[in-house]
Write a structure and sequence with these properties.
Elements: H1 3-16, E1 20-23, E2 27-33, E3 36-42, E4 50-54, E5 57-63, H2 72-83, E6 87-91, H3 95-98
């Protein structure tokens, strides 16, 4: 399964379970406006692909394929989120998410 397919599966599952969540877009791009080139960054560096909030907890889910590795920025973000009281999870299967939301 590709990262994109897994991400869709996780987002669909969270929606079906009615767990408040959002896809977190981050990155950077350049564009031109009136002849000037501009560099724009959006989202926090290293932030996870999906955030969810449930039961007073905030969860950061970083979607990775079987061989995917975290960047140093993603590791730092995960440590900071957990230090602040949240939970951070590298997701390689849907079970890595459903584990947190068992009844």
């Amino acid at each position: 399964m590709t990262e994109k397919e897994l991400q869709r599966q996780v987002l669909d599952w969270l929606r079906i379970k009615r767990i408040f969540h959002w896809r977190n877009n981050s990155g950077a791009m350049t564009s031109s406006y009136k002849g000037k080139s501009r560099f724009m960054r959006f989202g926090a560096i290293g932030s996870p692909d999906i955030f969810a909030v449930c039961g007073g907890w905030i969860y950061g889910f970083e979607i990775k394929g079987p061989k995917g590795k975290l960047s140093p920025e993603q590791v730092k973000f995960g440590i900071a989120l957990e230090k602040a009281g949240g939970r951070y999870q590298v997701v390689r299967s849907l079970e890595d998410v459903t584990f947190y939301f068992t009844d």
